[in-house]
């Protein structure tokens, strides 16, 4: 149980609050619930369609000290009349619900737009009308492409951080043309950000917007057929994990030249807890949450993951560890991508004093160790079930 002596960044005692967490059963939500239960006195109303990733927090037979501080409510926010009542019961609403898998942006653009904009509208409305604070999870995708991507390949300006480092209050949001449906997600997320900001300006909504830059760790995304649907394409790290577990070459889309940064989920959750418990410093702000020190190309990421997997699994490296595929072949017609996503960390460091700690190698080792164990357990269970029915 958390100590009563906990204080915020300004030295004031932290008072217990009730948090309505939408999407609590997902990757980020499960880690945030763990953090809140183990280290704080706060209560959580956990809303989601599934609770598989937080079952260990809910099972009464384990007699957790936090059993009376977390309640699971199985609901879909776009069709459940209980939503407003649950928001009213809480001091703070955290909205994590979204379709956020790149393959869906192209193949399910309508679902993507509805999930990330239309379905989020009632949450913003209820928070604003009932004077409830909102922490809304957006995405680094709202930045789109960098200014640097439009410079000539040999331009010395490409070395100037001003053309590719992404700043919350300065960088433009540059998307591809309308037929590039890959930007359906980013555009929907940007529009809900603008609506939240407008609610704050016109109606006094207390809000914080989070822009995650590739949060990585155990329970992230899904491995098809193991802890997620058999069909579908997860995000890049889970795609690579899936290939490694099944001993298949990693598919590098368009040569894997896009550059990304990755941050460990436990580092990122520390940042979110600071936002929760320091409203005076977080309200009205948009925060990049990433690790600019963990920047690699997708190709380099694949190579590093292959090395880490050899270490954690004891299995030999494949003779052909990677293959190149086109984005059209992998994602379908209409796919487009950003070149680099490097977060500027000035605002979050100034307001909350937060900096990420975990290296890329260490976060990959933690993630792949978890996934290798989960995969081995799933295979063992499938073999056992097959033997029992044969």
Automatic annotation (TrEMBL):
It comes from the Eukaryota. Keywords: NAD. Residues 19-290 form the NAD-dependent epimerase/dehydratase domain. InterPro entries: Arna-like_SDR_e, Epimerase_deHydtase, Lipid_A_modif_metabolic_enz, NAD(P)-bd_dom_sf. SUPFAM superfamilies: NAD(P)-binding Rossmann-fold domains. Pfam families: Epimerase. This is UDP-D-apiose/UDP-D-xylose synthase 2. The gene is LOC103326554.
């Amino acid at each position: 149980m958390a100590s009563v002596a906990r204080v915020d960044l300004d030295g004031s005692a932290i008072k217990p609050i009730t948090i309505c967490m939408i999407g609590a059963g997902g990757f980020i939500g499960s880690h945030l619930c763990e953090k809140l239960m183990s280290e704080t006195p706060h209560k959580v109303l956990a809303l989601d369609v599934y609770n598989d990733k937080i079952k260990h927090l809910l099972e009464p037979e384990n007699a957790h000290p936090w059993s009376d501080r977390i309640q699971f409510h199985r609901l879909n926010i776009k069709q459940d009349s209980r939503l407003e009542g649950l928001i009213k019961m809480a001091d703070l609403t955290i909205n994590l619900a979204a379709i956020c898998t790149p393959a869906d942006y192209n193949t399910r653009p309508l679902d993507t737009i509805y999930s990330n904009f239309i379905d989020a509208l009632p949450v913003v409305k209820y928070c604003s009308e009932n004077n409830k604070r909102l922490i809304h999870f957006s995405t680094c995708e709202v930045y789109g492409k960098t200014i640097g991507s439009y410079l000539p390949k040999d331009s010395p300006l490409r070395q100037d951080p001003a053309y590719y480092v992404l700043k919350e209050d300065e960088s433009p949001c540059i998307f591809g043309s309308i037929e590039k449906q890959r930007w359906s997600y980013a555009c929907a997320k940007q529009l809900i950000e603008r609506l939240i900001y407008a609610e704050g300006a016109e109606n006094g909504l207390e809000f914080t917007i989070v822009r995650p830059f590739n949060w990585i760790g155990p329970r992230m995304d899904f491995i098809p057929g193991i802890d997620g649907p058999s069909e579908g394409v997860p995000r890049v790290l889970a795609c690579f994990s899936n290939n490694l577990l099944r001993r298949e070459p990693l598919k590098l889309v368009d040569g894997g030249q896009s550059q990304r940064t990755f941050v460990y989920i436990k580092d990122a959750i520390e940042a979110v807890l600071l936002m929760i418990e320091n409203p005076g410093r977080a309200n009205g702000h948009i925060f990049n949450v990433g690790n600019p020190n963990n920047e690699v190309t997708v190709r380099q990421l694949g190579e590093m993951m292959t090395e880490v997997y050899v270490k954690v699994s004891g299995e030999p490296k494949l003779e052909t560890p990677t293959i190149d595929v086109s984005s059209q072949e992998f994602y379908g017609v209409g796919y487009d991508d950003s070149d680099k996503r490097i977060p500027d960390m000035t605002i979050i460091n100034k307001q909350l004093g937060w900096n990420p700690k975990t290296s890329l190698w260490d976060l990959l080792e933690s993630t792949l160790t978890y996934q290798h164990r989960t995969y081995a357990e799933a295979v063992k269970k499938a073999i056992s079930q097959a033997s029992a029915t044969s």
